[in-house]
Design goal:
With 112 residues, the protein is of the alpha+beta class. It is 26% helix and 23% strand. It is built from four helices and six strands, in the order E-E-H-E-E-E-E-H-H-H. Strands 1-4-5-2 form a four-stranded mixed sheet. InterPro entries: QRL_CxxC_CxxC.
């Protein structure tokens, strides 16, 4: 990759945007290379870096198809099923527990 221009925080020229900014505009990078980067300085640490893409070369976001909506619903439902008791927890199971709260802390549920 060739050297890209580096700008200081909030000093990037018009016509460039981050992925999130493109998404807010209903766009995506669309396979284009990084046009520039912005660095935000931090004390005693490396600067935060954000990659910028050209807005004029961005493509529209692909619309969600019924099959993609179904796949997303299935994936979200799987995140709610406890692998230990196989019940729907009613919330997304935290990865730190890897199971629903009653399965993770069975003694605390009896005491209450």
């Amino acid at each position: 990759m060739a050297a890209v221009p580096v700008y200081r925080w909030r000093l990037a020229p018009d016509g460039l945007a981050t992925r999130r900014q493109l998404r807010a505009l209903g766009l995506r990078p669309g396979g284009q290379d990084v046009a520039a980067q912005v660095e935000r300085p931090r004390r005693r640490r490396e600067p935060l870096v954000a990659y910028l893409y050209r807005i004029d070369a961005a493509k529209p976001v692909r619309p969600m198809t019924p099959a993609r909506w179904a796949a997303l619903a299935k994936a979200n439902a799987a995140r709610r099923i406890c692998p230990k008791c196989q019940r729907d927890a009613g919330y997304v199971i935290p990865p730190s527990l890897d199971m629903c709260t009653p399965c993770a802390y069975p003694d605390e549920q009896r005491a209450a």
